Amino acid sequence: MERMNLDSFPRYYPPEEHRGFPFPRHFAPKSPIHYFADSDPAFQISRSSRKTVSQIMVRGRDACWEHCVLVDATKQKVRCNYCQREFSGGVYRMKFHLAQIKNKDIVPCTEVPTDVRDHILSILETPKKQKTPKKPKVDKAALANGQQISSSASGDFHPTHVSNGQNGSTCPSLLFLCPSPTSQEPVDDVQKQKQDLADKTVAVFFFHNSIPFSAARSIYYREMVDAVAECGGNYKAPSYEVLRSTLLEKVNSDIHDRYKKYRDEWKETGCTILCESWSDGRNKSLVIFSVTYPKGTLFLKSVDVSGHEDDTTYLFELLESVVLEVGVEDVVQIITDTSSSYIYAGRLLMGKYSSLFWSPCASYCINKILEDIGKQEWVCIVLEEARTITNFIGSHGWTLSMMRKFAGGRELVRPKINRFVTNFLNLRSIVIQEDNIKHMFSHPEWVSSASSRRPEAQAVKSLLYVERFWQHAQEAVTIAEPLVKILRIVDGDMPAMGYIYEGIESAKIAIKTYYKGIEEKYMPIWDIIDRRWSMQLHSSLHAAAASLNPSIFYNPNFKIDSRMRNGFQETMLRMASTHEDKMEITKEHPVYVTAQGALGSDFAIMGRTLNAPGDWWAGYGYEIPTLQRYALRILSQPCSSHWCCWNWSTFESIHAKKHSRTEPENFDDLVFVHCNLWLQSISQNRDAKCKPIVFDEIDVSSEWPTELECPAPILDDSLLDSLPLNVEVVSEL
Q1: How far apart are CA 371 and CA 419, in angstroms?
Q2: Secondary structure in 3-state letters for 288-310
Q3: Which of 5, 14, 215, 668 has the CA that lies 20 to 30 A from 174?
Q4: Residue 139 has what DSSP assignment?
């Protein structure tokens, strides 16, 4: 490269009136190359280049970069080091991903270690520092015009502001230092001390009252702090007496107001009563009743049914009382487990109320299918061998840490899901991580360790090189995964009624395909599925929902069989309460079948797979309003009652204490408020918008709703001590 001759550039000479005047060091004249670069665009750094430099500097400072990598600088696309998901929008969106905060279309990371998640969450929760105000820009014209500058008696420079010819703004002269702004450090120190004191006070309250740290993630915790800050320094916290009386009454009243709003929406969507039962295996049996629809769930009550678990008449009367409490005209179905007493009670209920359906819990039935498959001899053996591997790795801290390193931070065990699902998901993780597991057990670091010489370690290492284990593991995972996908759908946070029928059929086809149509191989699995599906799970309501799901009904690859057609007719006959409605449905159904009018428009055709079934009917079914109304009610219902995790020990304790209290009404109010605030927090944390479900795109490795939410916290009822309370609260809905 040819060397540049600086002598060829124009030299800078100060104005005549400033010659001989000593320049302050901060305003020494620029070198010729500097002035040439300022005037010549060829030497100026582009904005994009400066932006890149800035980004690199930010990347160097941000702690989040330790947990992700930059994939595409132009699009600011980054990839998570743990789950390998990629996001556009830079490291800021990645923080929400790693902190497991659902934000717009950001999917929480399923593989991030707990300590990393908590660290990133603390970064997000830390208030940003206020930016230091920028120094005023210098007007180059001041140099040329030679403005005079006066100084104070103290010797400080006070530049005279001159007008800029371009925009009329004023700016100081170039020749002297601008006075530095008044230091804000003392004020900042005082504010920091206040912040530290407030943080420590909150922490002391948590520690003293044994409040779990997870409470800091509660939406109510943040709302509380913000509300107190809004009140300023004059806020006085409520007293013990006010909490246990007036405020309990007010919050209870707010929940009942929300319940009234729900009732208005049930007129259109209908609702489902969830009946969840529990037993301690000895002499205690409890039932929790809640009512749900697409926008939320409301806890109704818990009932001690000990001694009446097998009494069909008692259970029928109990179910009927809840249906009447909610409103027969609004209830589409009631979901219970599949014990014989509940089956008979459900049939009695359907016999008395013609528009009502009893449905078994789909989660319960599919778990039973997985349990039955797990009892197959070869499956039982491979699951037990997989437990040997996971138990050994998980029971030794150093081994577990090393496994995480070789597996890229991924976990082998999923402990928070149902036992039968967990067995198959753990086996699936082992199959996926086969190469990494073998690599770890053959790595010099492992071989040279004391852990490798343990007898159980030798047994695990030997098992890893048994070909039969890997063949059976792959087979078990392949036949179980379609069923686990169905369970993931029905355990999700959106109406799944329109998908359960297709899910079962798709699972059977996938299993048959894996066995290449060899009957002696796939038929034993089919028999297990059909036994539970036909005898326990299948309902005419499921068939009608599949028939009204446009993504299924108009799919040329899906066969509409006689059971689906008969189920649709049976459902319509039960739900259509008047002769006029039945006549209208008879006229309108052919319009749906042949996709006439708005149902056959370009948007409606695209929406069959792009919109949730209920949204599709709401948007395009207006020309057949009667069928539209019933389709919306059917497709808005869930299939499962297991979408949330109740803390049954709480309710066991509640019913034990209620027998010794003189004012159980107020205690019931506290339970009602406690449970409904928990359900409301779950609904607010979830994406309320229903989305279409594509069976082949279900990722069973992603976090399940039952993993994302903690079980309902244990209720501390100490604020109701020293009853009675003089509070008038409506205890019934």
Answers
A1: 9
A2: EEEEEECCEEEEEEEEECCCCCC
A3: 5
A4: -
The percentage of the chain sitting over the pLDDT mark of 70, rounded to a whole number, equals 74
Q: For 388, what's the count of Cα atoms within 13 Å in the CB-facing half-sphere?
A: 17
Q: Which sign, positive or negative, has the C-alpha torsion 438, 443, 447, 451?
A: negative
Q: Work out the number of other CB atoms within 10 angstroms of the CB of residue 336.
A: 25
Phi, psi of 145 (to 5 degrees): -80, -15
> What is the residue whose two structure tokens read 């790795």?
393
Return the number of other C-beta atoms located less than 10 Å from residue 704's C-beta: 22
Is the CB of residue 109 less than 8 Å from the CB of residue 98? yes
The pTM for the full model equals 0.69
Number of neighbours of residue 601 by Cβ within 10 angstroms = 12
- Residue 10 tokens, joined: 């124009």
Nearest Cα neighbor of 580 from 633, 546, 625, 632 is 625
Q: What is the DSSP letter of 106?
A: B
Structure-token pair, residue 440: 């770890």
Burial string for 447-461 (b: 16+ CB within 10 Å, else e) reads: eeeeebeeeebeebb
**Residues linked to residue 272 through DSSP beta bridges, in sequence order:** 292, 333
437 membership: H or E segment, kind and range: helix 434-442
> 336 forms bridges with which residues in the sheet?
360
Residue with tokens 């992603």: 702
Distances (CA, A) of 2 to 35, 45, 681: 21, 21, 69
Run of H or E including 351? helix 340-352
DSSP secondary structure, 680-729, as one string:
HHHHHHS--S-----GGG--TTSPPHHHHSPPPPPP--GGG-S-------
Q: What is the pLDDT of residue 686?
A: 63
- Give the helix/strand (H/E) hosting 131: none
Residue type, 552: I
111-142: buried (b, 16+ CB within 10 Å) or exposed (e) per residue?
Answer: bbeeebbebbbeeeeeeeeeeeeeeeebbebb
What CA–CA distance (Å, rounded) separates 168 from 26? Answer: 26
| Beta-strand relationship, 296-304 and 285-293 | antiparallel
| Mean pLDDT score of the chain | 78
Residue 19 is classified by DSSP as T
Distance in angstroms (rounded) separating the CA atoms of residues 602 and 641: 37
Percent helix, percent strand, percent coil in the chain, to nearest 5: 60, 10, 35
Confidence category of residue 259, pLDDT binned at 50, 70, 90: confident
258 phi and psi, to 5 degrees? Answer: -65, -35
- Spatial distance between the Cα atoms of 406 and 402, rounded to a whole number of angstroms: 6
Query: d(Cα 696, Cα 442) in Å, to the nearest integer?
Result: 36
The SS3 call for residue 577 is coil
CB 446 within 8 A of CB 452: yes
- CA–CA gap between residue 457 and residue 441 (Å, rounded): 9
How far apart are the C-alpha atoms of 341 and 627, rounded to whole Å? 34
Please state at what angle helix 467-490 crosses helix 419-432, rounded to 10 degrees.
130
* Angle at the Cα of 113 from the Cα atoms of 111 and 119, rounded to 5 degrees: 125
- What is the tens place of the pLDDT at every residue in 577-595? 899 999 999 999 999 999 9
End-to-end CA distance of the chain: 86
Identify whether the C-beta of residue 535 lies closer than 8 Å to the C-beta of residue 376: no
**Mean pLDDT to the nearest integer, 551-572:** 90
Do residues 335 and 361 touch, judged by C-beta distance below 8 A? yes
Helix boundaries (H) for 88-234 = 91-98, 114-125, 140-145, 185-208, 219-231
Give the tens place of pLDDT for each residue, 328-387.
999 999 999 888 899 999 999 999 998 999 998 888 889 899 999 999 999 999 999 999
Return all residues near 351 (Cβ < 8 A) that are at least 6 apart: none
Buried-exposed string 172-190: b where 16+ CB fall within 10 A, e elsewhere? bbbbbeeeeeeeeeeeeee
